[in-house]
Amino acid sequence: NAGVMQNPRHLVRRRGQEARLRCSPMKGHSHVYWYRQLPEEGLKFMVYLQKENIIDESGMPKERFSAEFPKEGPSILRIQQVVRGDSAAYFCASSPPAERNTIYFGEGSWLTVV
Amino acid sequence: SQKIEQNSEALNIQEGKTATLTCNYTNYSPAYLQWYRQDPGRGPVFLLLIRENEKEKRKERLKVTFDTTLKQSLFHITASQPADSATYLCALAGSSNTGKLIFGQGTTLQVKP
Questions:
Q1: Which positions of chain A have pLDDT values less than 70?
Q2: Which of A37, B15, B61, B67 is the most buried (most CB within 10 A)?
Q3: How far is it, in rounded angstroms, from Cα A47 to Cα B100?
Protein backbone atom coordinates (compact mmCIF):
# COMPACT_ATOMS: atom_id res chain seq x y z
CA ASN A 1 0.00 0.00 0.00
CA ALA A 2 1.77 3.09 -1.20
CA GLY A 3 1.97 6.00 1.20
CA VAL A 4 1.05 9.61 0.56
CA MET A 5 2.83 10.68 -2.62
CA GLN A 6 3.95 14.23 -3.12
CA ASN A 7 5.66 15.81 -6.10
CA PRO A 8 7.81 17.51 -6.85
CA ARG A 9 10.06 16.86 -3.86
CA HIS A 10 12.05 19.99 -4.60
CA LEU A 11 10.94 23.03 -6.56
CA VAL A 12 12.78 26.26 -7.30
CA ARG A 13 10.81 29.26 -8.48
CA ARG A 14 11.71 32.87 -9.18
CA ARG A 15 9.77 35.60 -7.44
CA GLY A 16 6.49 36.21 -9.25
CA GLN A 17 6.19 32.72 -10.73
CA GLU A 18 3.59 30.13 -9.84
CA ALA A 19 4.21 26.97 -7.83
CA ARG A 20 2.00 23.88 -8.08
CA LEU A 21 2.40 21.11 -5.56
CA ARG A 22 0.66 17.78 -6.02
CA CYS A 23 -0.47 15.19 -3.53
CA SER A 24 -1.94 11.73 -4.02
CA PRO A 25 -3.41 10.38 -0.76
CA MET A 26 -3.05 6.83 0.44
CA LYS A 27 -5.38 4.34 -1.21
CA GLY A 28 -8.80 4.46 0.40
CA HIS A 29 -8.20 7.84 2.02
CA SER A 30 -10.66 10.55 1.03
CA HIS A 31 -9.48 13.32 3.34
CA VAL A 32 -6.47 15.46 2.50
CA TYR A 33 -4.67 18.09 4.57
CA TRP A 34 -1.93 20.54 3.66
CA TYR A 35 0.57 21.81 6.22
CA ARG A 36 3.46 24.24 5.88
CA GLN A 37 6.72 24.13 7.79
CA LEU A 38 8.68 27.36 7.64
CA PRO A 39 12.37 27.35 8.57
CA GLU A 40 12.80 27.23 12.35
CA GLU A 41 9.03 26.98 12.85
CA GLY A 42 6.60 24.19 13.56
CA LEU A 43 4.12 22.63 11.21
CA LYS A 44 1.12 24.86 10.57
CA PHE A 45 -2.25 23.67 9.27
CA MET A 46 -3.31 25.26 6.00
CA VAL A 47 -6.35 23.51 4.54
CA TYR A 48 -8.52 20.40 4.82
CA LEU A 49 -10.23 18.97 1.74
CA GLN A 50 -12.43 16.10 0.76
CA LYS A 51 -13.14 15.16 -2.82
CA GLU A 52 -14.40 18.28 -4.62
CA ASN A 53 -14.92 20.14 -1.32
CA ILE A 54 -12.90 22.49 0.84
CA ILE A 55 -13.87 21.69 4.41
CA ASP A 56 -11.62 24.06 6.36
CA GLU A 57 -9.27 26.64 4.88
CA SER A 58 -8.74 28.65 8.05
CA GLY A 59 -4.95 28.33 7.80
CA MET A 60 -4.61 29.46 4.22
CA PRO A 61 -3.16 32.89 3.49
CA LYS A 62 -5.90 35.11 2.14
CA GLU A 63 -4.18 35.85 -1.14
CA ARG A 64 -2.19 33.92 -3.74
CA PHE A 65 -2.82 30.49 -2.18
CA SER A 66 -5.48 28.03 -3.32
CA ALA A 67 -6.11 24.31 -3.00
CA GLU A 68 -8.28 21.77 -4.70
CA PHE A 69 -8.99 18.07 -4.56
CA PRO A 70 -10.86 17.13 -7.76
CA LYS A 71 -13.00 14.07 -8.25
CA GLU A 72 -10.24 12.53 -10.31
CA GLY A 73 -6.55 13.10 -9.79
CA PRO A 74 -4.34 14.44 -7.04
CA SER A 75 -4.88 17.34 -4.69
CA ILE A 76 -3.14 20.52 -5.83
CA LEU A 77 -1.78 23.36 -3.71
CA ARG A 78 -1.23 26.38 -5.90
CA ILE A 79 0.80 29.43 -4.95
CA GLN A 80 0.62 32.34 -7.35
CA GLN A 81 3.20 35.11 -7.65
CA VAL A 82 5.55 33.49 -5.15
CA VAL A 83 7.63 35.62 -2.79
CA ARG A 84 10.75 34.69 -0.81
CA GLY A 85 8.65 34.23 2.32
CA ASP A 86 6.84 31.32 0.65
CA SER A 87 10.05 29.25 0.81
CA ALA A 88 9.15 26.34 3.04
CA ALA A 89 8.40 22.65 3.17
CA TYR A 90 4.81 21.86 2.24
CA PHE A 91 3.46 18.60 3.60
CA CYS A 92 0.35 16.78 2.50
CA ALA A 93 -1.36 14.29 4.76
CA SER A 94 -4.35 12.00 4.36
CA SER A 95 -6.68 10.08 6.64
CA PRO A 96 -9.24 7.33 6.14
CA PRO A 97 -12.94 8.21 6.43
CA ALA A 98 -13.48 6.12 9.54
CA GLU A 99 -10.49 7.36 11.51
CA ARG A 100 -9.86 10.97 10.67
CA ASN A 101 -7.91 11.53 13.88
CA THR A 102 -4.86 9.77 12.51
CA ILE A 103 -3.17 11.38 9.56
CA TYR A 104 -0.31 10.07 7.46
CA PHE A 105 2.14 12.50 5.97
CA GLY A 106 3.95 12.49 2.69
CA GLU A 107 7.63 13.29 2.42
CA GLY A 108 6.97 16.91 1.58
CA SER A 109 7.64 19.34 -1.24
CA TRP A 110 10.48 21.79 -0.59
CA LEU A 111 9.85 25.12 -2.28
CA THR A 112 12.69 27.58 -2.69
CA VAL A 113 11.94 31.03 -4.06
CA VAL A 114 14.94 32.85 -5.51
CA SER B 1 -4.14 32.19 22.21
CA GLN B 2 -3.51 28.45 22.02
CA LYS B 3 0.06 27.54 22.68
CA ILE B 4 2.05 24.32 22.69
CA GLU B 5 5.51 24.21 24.18
CA GLN B 6 8.14 21.58 23.72
CA ASN B 7 11.64 21.83 25.07
CA SER B 8 13.49 23.72 22.35
CA GLU B 9 16.86 22.53 23.56
CA ALA B 10 18.12 19.27 22.15
CA LEU B 11 18.07 16.30 24.46
CA ASN B 12 21.28 14.27 24.53
CA ILE B 13 21.27 10.89 26.25
CA GLN B 14 23.35 7.76 26.33
CA GLU B 15 22.26 4.61 24.53
CA GLY B 16 20.21 2.32 26.77
CA LYS B 17 18.82 5.14 28.92
CA THR B 18 15.22 6.34 28.94
CA ALA B 19 14.49 9.53 27.03
CA THR B 20 11.67 11.71 28.36
CA LEU B 21 10.24 14.52 26.27
CA THR B 22 7.72 17.07 27.51
CA CYS B 23 4.77 18.76 25.83
CA ASN B 24 2.89 21.53 27.65
CA TYR B 25 -0.10 23.41 26.33
CA THR B 26 -2.21 26.40 27.35
CA ASN B 27 -5.60 27.83 26.42
CA TYR B 28 -6.73 24.57 24.88
CA SER B 29 -8.81 21.54 25.77
CA PRO B 30 -7.77 18.89 23.29
CA ALA B 31 -9.82 15.79 22.68
CA TYR B 32 -6.63 13.91 21.97
CA LEU B 33 -2.90 14.35 21.63
CA GLN B 34 -0.47 12.75 19.21
CA TRP B 35 3.26 12.26 18.96
CA TYR B 36 5.15 12.18 15.68
CA ARG B 37 8.74 11.53 14.71
CA GLN B 38 10.44 13.60 12.01
CA ASP B 39 13.84 12.93 10.48
CA PRO B 40 15.72 15.68 8.58
CA GLY B 41 14.28 16.21 5.12
CA ARG B 42 11.42 13.77 5.71
CA GLY B 43 7.74 13.96 6.59
CA PRO B 44 6.44 13.38 10.12
CA VAL B 45 5.66 9.79 11.02
CA PHE B 46 2.75 9.03 13.36
CA LEU B 47 3.77 7.23 16.57
CA LEU B 48 1.01 7.32 19.18
CA LEU B 49 -2.38 8.88 19.88
CA ILE B 50 -3.79 9.30 23.39
CA ARG B 51 -7.30 10.52 24.15
CA GLU B 52 -8.37 12.96 26.86
CA ASN B 53 -9.89 10.17 28.96
CA GLU B 54 -6.72 8.04 28.81
CA LYS B 55 -3.86 8.46 31.27
CA GLU B 56 -1.23 6.34 29.59
CA LYS B 57 -0.56 4.50 26.36
CA ARG B 58 2.23 2.14 25.38
CA LYS B 59 3.62 0.80 22.13
CA GLU B 60 6.73 -1.34 22.25
CA ARG B 61 9.46 0.88 23.78
CA LEU B 62 7.28 3.99 23.68
CA LYS B 63 5.06 5.30 26.46
CA VAL B 64 2.90 8.41 26.48
CA THR B 65 1.11 9.98 29.44
CA PHE B 66 -1.56 12.66 29.26
CA ASP B 67 -2.48 14.84 32.25
CA THR B 68 -5.33 17.18 31.33
CA THR B 69 -5.15 18.86 34.74
CA LEU B 70 -1.50 19.80 34.34
CA LYS B 71 -2.05 20.29 30.60
CA GLN B 72 0.97 18.16 29.91
CA SER B 73 2.03 15.06 28.03
CA LEU B 74 5.22 13.11 28.60
CA PHE B 75 6.74 10.92 25.91
CA HIS B 76 9.17 8.20 26.99
CA ILE B 77 11.49 6.03 24.92
CA THR B 78 12.95 3.22 27.00
CA ALA B 79 16.20 1.42 26.17
CA SER B 80 16.99 4.18 23.69
CA GLN B 81 19.08 3.46 20.59
CA PRO B 82 21.06 5.72 18.25
CA ALA B 83 18.36 5.00 15.63
CA ASP B 84 15.89 6.83 17.87
CA SER B 85 17.74 10.09 17.18
CA ALA B 86 15.23 12.43 15.51
CA THR B 87 12.92 15.34 16.20
CA TYR B 88 9.75 14.45 18.07
CA LEU B 89 6.62 16.53 17.57
CA CYS B 90 3.64 16.86 19.86
CA ALA B 91 0.28 17.68 18.25
CA LEU B 92 -3.14 18.52 19.68
CA ALA B 93 -6.60 18.25 18.16
CA GLY B 94 -10.06 19.34 19.17
CA SER B 95 -13.10 17.15 19.14
CA SER B 96 -13.98 17.66 15.53
CA ASN B 97 -12.55 14.31 14.49
CA THR B 98 -10.39 15.72 11.77
CA GLY B 99 -6.72 15.81 11.00
CA LYS B 100 -6.53 19.51 11.76
CA LEU B 101 -3.72 19.53 14.32
CA ILE B 102 -1.76 22.14 16.24
CA PHE B 103 1.90 21.17 16.38
CA GLY B 104 4.63 22.05 18.81
CA GLN B 105 8.02 23.00 17.41
CA GLY B 106 9.49 19.68 18.38
CA THR B 107 12.35 18.46 20.51
CA THR B 108 15.46 16.99 18.93
CA LEU B 109 16.71 13.83 20.58
CA GLN B 110 20.29 12.65 20.14
CA VAL B 111 21.13 9.17 21.44
CA LYS B 112 24.86 8.58 21.72
CA PRO B 113 26.33 5.08 21.46
A1: 1
A2: A37
A3: 8
